[in-house]
Every structure is written in structure tokens, then in C-alpha cells.
Amino acid sequence: MKISTKGRYALSIMIQLGRVYSEGEYLSLTEISEREHISLKYLEKIMISLKKADFFLVQKGKEGGYLLKKDPSEISIGSIIRAAEEELDVVDCVKSGGCPKKNQCGTYPLWKGLSEEINLYLDSKFLKEYL
Amino acid sequence: MKISTKGRYALSIMIQLGRVYSEGEYLSLTEISEREHISLKYLEKIMISLKKADFFLVQKGKEGGYLLKKDPSEISIGSIIRAAEEELDVVDCVKSGGCPKKNQCGTYPLWKGLSEEINLYLDSKFLKEYL
DNA sequence: GTAATTCCTACTAAATTAGTAGTAAAATAG
DNA sequence: CTATTTTACTACTAATTTAGTAGGAATTAC
User: Fold this and answer.
1) Does A6 contact strand D, using a CB cutoff of 7 Å?
2) How many Å apart are CA B121 and CA A52, to the nearest integer?
3) What pLDDT is stored for residue B97 in this prediction?
4) Three-class DSSP category at B59
């Protein structure tokens, strides 16, 4: 039951972007890589997942980088971790489609409940609190 | 953020033992293996972890097996999953000893809080509810 | 046009999780 | 007392997931 380093690094990226958000300047992965001591190549890979959540304005080329679209007070930690980890459910049967036997399954409510608990907790925390 | 199959199978074992608890008879892994369609060898391995939590009375040899020491209403799901998964913390820095920088770490409270949330939830559910 | 950057595809390595195999030791029924 | 059933112990192997790297194409500011 571990959060992956991908998830933790994703949060680091978002924290760095959150810190410069008010300045309205684009921050490059090279810069984040140096500040957080994470390889540029790995950050690029993590960024692929994060971009799907539509968190950023992107500026290619020199002086380019990423800029948050929303204020850090409006970005939940849950939305970040879900984007990075792809999902935040403790068992696969919980997700849409899921297990066909879920209604007969005695432990399904347990895992469903736990997944909801985790998502609720992480959705109650916002990026701004961790800058 | 998945519960491992080891954790889920551990719960299956406990559910089977919980169902026969009141009869006071020992239930063998061979029997559980057939009822749950899990290989005997794998169950043996999972049992090594569960035994550390001191859940069972053990009877070797013919007609032997395992018998719960406590009533299923007194065995929390948290204690089962912690025994099987070894720990239930979302990051390593949370556990005793843990990361030396935890007091300077901005996200430590987040992961600590989430781990507590998960443990609290699973400790509020008891085996009896899933028999 | 050059340097800095994102974007894209494809790999490789490491670690964890899942599962198997064989045998020894204990206990009981008969 | 012996055959059988069961746990206990030790050591593997296989599969899957996670972590991390490599190289180059496209884009843009200066």
C-alpha cells in the first residue's frame, strides 16, 4: 500500500510550479530537475501523466516551460495523485466496469469504502497547503 | 496504491476460519485451499505472515489445522492486513525510525495523515462483518 | 541559426510480488 | 507402530510493476 515515487515526484513538480504561480512565469523541467534533484528524463515521463489532467499552460522552446492554469488553492492533492498513479483504488474491481461479481462479493464493500476514504482525504487537501 | 493479493488472500483465510470458529474445530489449509481455490503452497506462505500476529491455535498432523484464538467480532480487518502486508503506511518515512528529515519535510504531514486515515478505517471494521 | 526547451518513441534495469518445489517434523487414527 | 495428514522450513523461479535512461524530432526566443 505504498504511494509510488512517481506519485511523490509528481507532487514535487506541482509544488515547484505552485510556488511560482503568482509570478505568471513559465518554469522549465530543467529548473525543476535541479531544484528537486530528480533526473530530467524521469520528470519528462511523469509529466506525460500529469498533462492528461490538464493542469498546465505549456510554452515550448527557449524560455519555455509550464505554468499552472489554476490557483494552487483550487488544485486538490487527490487530483494530482490520481493523475500520476492513474488510479487510486485499492483493488481493481472497484473501478468502472470492474468485477462482474462485485454484488455477490463479501469484501467488495470493504475495498470500495477504503478507496472512497482515501480519495476523500486527498481531495480535502490542496496544493496551496504544501508550498 | 493497491492492496496486494497476499493481503486479499489473507483476508480470505481469516474469513474461512471465522466461519467455523464457533464450532471449535481446527480447519486445515488443504480445506481452505479447496474452498477458496488458492494453491496450498501459496496459502502456507501467507500463513507465515499471519502467524506472527498470533491469531491462531495450531494443531499439527492428522485432523489438524488452525483455529482462531479470538472471536471474529474482536479481530479488526486492519490487524489482518497489517500482518499480511507487513505495514500499511503509504510512505516509508512514516514508520518508526523513518526519515530523519521528516520535521522539515513539507509533505510528511500529508502522508502521515493518509496512513492514519487508512489504518483508522480498517481498524473500525471487524472480521465478523465479512463472514 | 543556435540554444533551450517540450514532445515522442523505445529501451533497460531494478525491485517487488506472486507462485512453486521438496523435504523435515509433528501428531493422530487405526 | 506405521501410514497418513498436516504444519514448518528453506530455497527457488516466474511474472509483473516500477523506476529510470537514451536519442532524436519539433518548436520557439533571442
Assistant:
1) yes
2) 31
3) 72
4) strand
pLDDT score recorded for residue A87: 81
Q: What predicted TM-score, i.e. pTM, was given to this entire model? A: 0.93
Which DSSP letter does residue B24 get? T
* DSSP single-letter state for residue B67: E
Identify the CA nearest to B71 among candidates B55, B84, B59, B49.
B55
Interface test with A, best of B14, B110, B125 (most A CBs within 10 A): B110
Maximum Cα–Cα distance across chain B: 58
- Is residue A129 within 8 Å of A19, Cβ to Cβ? no
A5 touches strand D (CB under 7 A): yes
Task: Set out the domains of chain B in order of their start, with CATH numbers.
Answer: 5-130 (1.10.10.10)
- Residues of chain B neighbouring A11 (CB-CB closer than 8 A): 107
Instruction: Report the distance separating Cα B49 and Cα B86, nearest Å.
Output: 8
State pLDDT tens for residues A21-46: 999 999 999 999 999 999 999 999 99
Give dist(CA A127, CA B47) in Å, integer.
Answer: 42
How far apart CA A90 and CA A1 sit, in angstroms, is 8
Q: Say how many residues make up chain B.
A: 131
- Would the pLDDT of A99 be above 80? no
